[in-house]
DNA sequence: CATGAATGAGAGTTCATTCAT
DNA sequence: TATGAATGAACTCTCATTCAT
């Protein structure tokens, strides 16, 4: 593992555990096994590091979302499964993406918000298409999207690979819950 | 409005907007219209303030949960509606409760975690009872509780009273989605 | 003497002795008898402090220049005497003004440069008027202004009130040298 | 141009523009087209570099001063012309010599101060001789030397070869001003 | 009740310099 | 010759908090 990777990993862990503002440069350096001055060999500013973590994570999600095909409900279930799996497998990265956006400022914030919006577009489209095709029954598609995303993203806040729940089972269960809450025709 | 209340209100707003660690004492003082020294006449430490906000909010939720009665599904729907309404009406308080627990340390943390656990117990019981009574069908009741809570708590992150969604409608929609995702018998 | 004044005085002394970039905040604090944190009670940034020193000094010079009247050569001699006296009496302030302008950035720089230009205008006018009135003989009035100003400002770099040279004599001598170098009719 | 020369040139430029303390090693390296580590193959410490620049410049001035001969006023005018030419042709080197002496410490400072004093001796002698020979009339020869030197050294602070002033004309004008300010017999 | 003054500790970041490769 | 990596010390500045008035 390169030093860059170790820095990134330390940052992901600490940002997830303590938040961006709750993590000091010296904490980061210690977690990465470097002096705080050396840290700056491998990164720009602390905010750069945060942006990079978010960009990578969101770009990956978008990449996976783009590959999803199928009929309306299939796509929705696939999105849910993919998203839940990502949040269970990389809980720290995803928690940082979901929770630290407010720490960004200016253009960097806009960039990341744009990526997030682009990702959420896949969900909105899947829901809208499902409703149009009369396969889903929701009162308000936008509210449904938000509720569904919150439910699925929450996984990163509690799932543990060492716990009793098998990840594949988890994705299946979430797929079923998603269909249920969206009133999928049985 | 008393000065104490103004301080509390400022804290709630800033903690919600910027996070506990992202909010400085001087920010707080300015938002409350006081000097930072005067602030300390109306509060203990910054962490005290956070604890107090969380305690109040959680205690209120617990109080309301205690008053909920009815059969298994009724209780669940009532919980959902109450929770969603609380998160829509007091998005900042609830967002702080849900998002800043990690900023607490030591005993204070334990106290608040205990309150939260006590509150979530109502949800777990409602789900478990529903399952026992064969009115709900879920693969894993614990997972269901977590998914449901994340979905409902997420409301504080996006709901705006000025937006197009009526709050009563919202609670109804969330009640329906909750039943759907938990496989309620129709 | 107020604390603010002590801070200012320390800054003037250190900036003059070591330069702006050669003076640390801790040096400043120590020289003012404060902790570095307390220092920030009495000033904005280090650059603010520099700007304020320069602005005060230049404004004073301009104020004095405005009061000078008389015929062409009288005005020139008066300018020289006033300038030399100011540079001998406040060698540190004036040395900072003359030597640290490059440490300023952005708008602050523009403001101070504008003040300096406004001050130098008095000199240029006096020389130009003297030439027009055929009381001075210079090859290039702009060059003459620059040479004269450098000569006079240099006083702050070497004059000491404890030295053998009397200040009134000094101003007279500089007045004479000025007339001589500008080819004043005898 | 050798790498050593490029380093020196970059240093001269940056020290002149931003001052010694305002110039970082990385700035220097970048300006020389090297990495900061490589820089250390071509120089000692940052202070060594400064000393070397000053020593070279002052030694050159001394060398030229030594070659000046003639009667009292001729020598003075020649000194002025030579000095002005040097300051116009190498404004950065001379500005560093004149402005960054305070950045030196300990023995290095003494060495450079000694060189400067040696150089200024030529000026003092020329003035003193002129006065003795009744060709110059000054109130205080030491003051005259300081005033004259400041006037002439100031050239490096404003002269530009691209500007409207021809260099030979400039030296002539300064020669004339020098004689004027020193009350030379006509 | 209110606050200006004060501070040790720590924030993020850069410093000049060294050294193994 | 060249440099990426490394660092202790220092940088400017802000932190949460206390206290005398």
Automatic annotation (TrEMBL), chains A, B, C, D:
Any one Pfam family here would be: TetR_C_24
Q: DNA-binding region(s): which residue ranges?
A: 24-43
Q: Where is the HTH tetR-type domain?
A: 1-61
- Keywords noted in UniProt: DNA-binding
Which sequence ranges are marked TM in the entry? none
Specify the domain of life of the species encoding this protein. Answer: Bacteria
Q: What PANTHER family does the record tag this protein with? A: HTH-TYPE TRANSCRIPTIONAL REGULATOR RUTR, HTH-TYPE TRANSCRIPTIONAL REPRESSOR BDCR
Name it.
TetR/AcrR family transcriptional regulator
Natural source organism: Lentzea sokolovensis
